[in-house]
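To illustrate this point, we now present one chain and its tokenised fold:
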Amino acid sequence: MNTYKYKDQQYRLKDNNLELLRLAAPVLIKYRKLLHEYTKDIDLTEFEYYKSRINELKTAIGQLIDGGDDEKVKELTNQLNIAENEFCQNTELQSLISLYSDCEGLVLLELIADIDFIKPFIKRILIGDTSKLNFEDNEILKLIREAVSDFFIITGRSRFISAA
């Protein structure tokens, strides 16, 4: 697990468990509302299709490898390669994914910049002497950015973490 340094102190995120999710619920709610507001006009239907298709093919290949059906594995592997290539070469879709990802970054920036909102959240999710954190000091921005980003990664809140 990552550690974060601020001044002479070290911090780390609490373990990813129900307590962490309970403590973070207000941030998750605000994140989702902001993300919806920023991305409601982005149609990701095609992304969801490719993600589903690629995952189905990977699952089927994994099941057939254990069964020893080499011909079917070869056929499905070919279909998987075609689907992954189509996904990667679809420039319009890649642009939409990039736009969505940029919006995720802007939402995180908005959350981080709301000091009255983020301060209690940071104090709840970190292990370490949080009384030493000075939220008026610009040096704390690195700790906040890293901790919040890691939080969303470990709790699987990014739509594209498991993307093709």
